[in-house]
Every structure is written in C-alpha cells, then in structure tokens.
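Notes to self after the Tuesday call (sharing in case useful).
The group wants a holo model before anyone commits to mutagenesis around the pocket. I volunteered. Ligand is fe (ii) ion. Logging inputs and output together so the record is complete.
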Amino acid sequence: MKKENKNKIDEIIRVNHAGEYGAQRIYSGQIKFCKTVKLKKELEKIIKEEYEHYDYFDKMMLKKRARPTFFSPLWHNGGYLLGAITAILGEKYVHACTEAVEEVIVEHYNEQVKYLENAGIEKEMLKKIKKFCADEDNHRSFAEESNKQYSDVNMFKLLTKGLTRLAIKVSKKI
Ligand SMILES: [Fe+2]
Ligand SMILES: [Fe+2]
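Result:
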C-alpha cells in the first residue's frame, strides 16, 4: 500500500475509534441520567450498536498498529458530560443531541466511503463503515422522528454539530 494511503487509513481508524468511543460515552451519560424507562430502553438498544462499532475499530487499531488519539480524555469526559447534561435537561435535548451528533457522523462516514471506493483499498473496512453508517443514520432518524415537534432546540443542535465537527477534526491528526 502507498504511504499516503497508509497514513489515511491510520487516520480513519484513529478518528473512528475515538468517535465510536465518544458515542458510547454520550449514550452512557444519557442512560445513567435519563428520566424515563422507555427512553432508557431505547438508548440501551442504540449503545449496543455503538459497542459493536467501537470493537471493530479497536481490533483494527491493533491489527494495523495505528496510534490512538491523544485526546481520549476529552472524548471520555466530554462525551459523558454532554450525555449527562442533555439527559438532565430532558428528553428533547437527548434527541436533539443524538440527531446532531449522528448527522455529522453520517457525513463523516460517507466521506470515508467515497475515499475508500475511489482508492479501491480496504474492501472489508469499507463494508463495515457502510454498515455502521446505516446504523448511525437509523439512530439519527429515530431521534429526528422523536423530536420533530420541537424547534427550540435548534440552537443547541447547531452547537452540538459544531462541537462534534471540531472533535473529529482534532482526532484525525492529534
Ligand atoms: Fe457508532
Ligand atoms: Fe450511533
């Protein structure tokens, strides 16, 4: 594999590993602090998929000897805090958070799909990313569906999207 491709693959593994870890942490914070059993059950279903996504990139990280991000503490604490705060603020913030984060993640995975398809490399990883991207889009549409009557969370969604984009940018390189 060309050096340039190898660097890009490392970057993909690093950022996805961090992102899936962050997703788990957000959902854990929400599960811990959410106020209804129904919501808790829904979130528990989602987090199971996030564990599966994370496990894959964790294995790939070892296999390809990619370096993890130096920002793990940020994902660990920042993710959990975001989850906890949104759960305490109430159900509409939980869904707004999911909708915003997952929308950015879907964009981000789609970019990787495009890259891998064009480069014609890592067919197995490409398949996994496509599957995970479909899962994330389900998480997003479930949240959107649950929340569509609220427009007062739009500012919060924008803020969360911005934070997610920043965290992704940082974790690709550092
Ligand atoms: Fe995920
Ligand atoms: Fe997700």
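Two things stood out.
The chain has one domain: 3-173.
The first helix runs from residue 3 to 33.
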